[in-house]
């Protein structure tokens, strides 16, 4: 069976970047890295409406458990006999607000125990700073002791190499990424992320937590030795969005759980301000989940480059009107988050030397 990535590569994103080379380059760059397990196709890519559970309430853990229960049968069947890998977003080791709250992870663990999928669970992360200090900041060690699960620092584990581009020259650059995150045959990967604005990609949720979080660095202090995470940022707004879009079919969540009990607005992902929001988004369609998350922050999904690229490629659904929302309406729970100070520069992914990018349907190879 062809993977979703392989089957859709002819229809992948084809649009101009700064140097005038199409983003088709992105698809070609990583074909040689697709020896890992085939990617899981979102429901929308298979012709079914994407289901997104949306909950709201005054208890963070309860919000997450209720959202997961809405999709209980689907999740249990998808996990099967695979190991469950919970990937939090611990971007920093010194700002608690910027990191996935331990109570959100507890909600996921409680749900997994309730559906009998608790025998083989790990919590795995590669923080942009020190992963061990990030675990300590959010009391993850206490959580692991309570639930008898293992904390894994991805930087100490096996890796495989993919390619990313810089928008400055569009030349391929090797990036070491976690084999655990990429291996869908053995692992069911849960992106346990947050609602946050972002200083380079407009917003960061399920997709970015997995793609950027899978890039590896030297273990320990974080910035010593090698660090491949900056390469995926692509040296600008076009580069980061193309890298996120071209790698998402390989590096993506099996399930997205977005904890918006406390969101972050302004100069996220680590320097923003708290938003008291009290929402949770759950979906196995990673594009639909992020699109709903964006809408909850008052951000039009089409403003986010990587979501636009992926949706235009037919890999998932970003149109809320074509989704099945389980729970309260998005419009009822949406808040207007303050966008980053760099938003005008970030939106340059839409343009090339002042002109709108070439429409995808005009450049697709048939």
What is the number of helical segments per DSSP (H or I, 4+ residues)? 15
Shape type:
globular
Spatial gap, N to C terminus: 21 Å
Low-confidence stretches: 1-37, 353-366
What does this structure look like?
The protein is α/β, with parallel strands linked by helices and 366 residues long. It has one domain. Helix content is 31%, strand content 22%. The protein has 15 helices and 13 strands. The strands form 3 sheets. Strands 1, 2, 3, 4, 7, 8, 9, 10 and 11 form a 9-stranded mixed sheet that branches. Helix 5 links the parallel strand 2 and strand 3. Helix 3 runs parallel beside helix 5 and helix 11 crosses helix 13. The radius of gyration is 19 Å and the shape is globular.
Task: Give a concise summary.
It is built from 15 helices and 13 strands. It is of the alpha/beta class. The two termini are 21 Å apart.
Task: Lay out the secondary structure.
Blueprint: H1 4-8, H2 24-29, E1 51-56, H3 60-69, H4 72-79, E2 83-88, H5 102-114, E3 121-125, H6 131-137, H7 140-147, E4 150-153, E5 159-165, E6 172-178, H8 179-182, E7 187-198, E8 202-204, H9 206-214, H10 229-232, H11 237-247, E9 255-265, E10 273-283, H12 286-296, H13 305-312, E11 324-327, H14 330-333, H15 343-346, E12 351-352, E13 355-356
Parallel strand pairs: 1-11, 2-3, 2-7, 3-4, 7-9
Antiparallel strand pairs: 1-10, 5-6, 7-8, 9-10, 12-13
Helix pairs in contact: 3-5, 11-13
Structural descriptors:
single chain; about 375 residues; alpha/beta; nine-stranded mixed β-sheet; two-stranded antiparallel sheet; 15 helices; 13 strands; about 20% strand; globular; disordered N terminus; disordered C terminus
């Amino acid at each position: 069976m062809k993977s979703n990535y392989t089957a859709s590569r002819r229809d992948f994103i084809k649009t101009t970047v700064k140097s005038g080379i199409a983003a088709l380059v992105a698809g070609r760059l990583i074909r040689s890295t697709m020896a890992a397990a085939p990617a899981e196709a979102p429901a929308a890519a298979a012709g079914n409406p994407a289901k997104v559970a949306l909950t709201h309430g005054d208890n963070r853990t309860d919000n997450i458990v209720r959202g997961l229960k809405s999709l209980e049968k689907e999740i249990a069947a998808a996990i099967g006999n695979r190991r469950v890998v919970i990937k939090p977003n611990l971007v920093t080791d010194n700002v608690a607000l910027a990191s996935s709250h331990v109570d959100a992870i507890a909600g996921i663990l409680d749900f997994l125990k309730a559906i009998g999928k608790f025998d083989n669970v790990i919590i795995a992360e590669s923080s942009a700073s020190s992963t061990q200090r990030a675990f300590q900041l959010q009391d993850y060690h206490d959580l692991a002791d309570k639930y008898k699960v293992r904390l894994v620092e991805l930087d100490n584990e096996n890796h495989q190499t993919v390619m990313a581009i810089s928008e400055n020259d569009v030349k391929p650059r090797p990036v070491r990424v976690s084999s655990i995150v990429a291996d869908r045959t053995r692992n069911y990967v849960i992106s346990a992320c947050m609602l946050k604005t972002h200083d380079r990609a407009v917003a960061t949720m399920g997709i970015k937590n997995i793609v950027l979080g899978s890039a590896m660095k030297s273990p320990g202090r974080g910035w010593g030795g090698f660090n491949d995470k900056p390469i995926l940022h692509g040296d600008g707004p076009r580069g980061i969005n193309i890298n996120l879009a071209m790698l998402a079919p390989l590096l993506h969540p099996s399930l997205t759980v977005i904890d918006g009990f406390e969101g972050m607005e302004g100069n996220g992902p680590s320097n923003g301000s708290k938003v008291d929001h009290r929402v949770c988004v759950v979906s196995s369609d990673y594009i639909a989940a992020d699109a709903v998350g964006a809408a909850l922050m008052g951000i039009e999904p089409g403003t986010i480059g990587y979501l636009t690229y992926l949706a235009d490629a037919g890999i998932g659904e970003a149109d809320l009107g074509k989704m099945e929302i389980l729970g309260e309406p998005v419009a009822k729970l949406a808040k207007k988050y303050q966008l980053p100070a760099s938003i005008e520069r970030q939106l340059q992914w839409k343009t090339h030397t002042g002109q709108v990018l070439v429409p995808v349907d005009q450049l697709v190879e048939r």
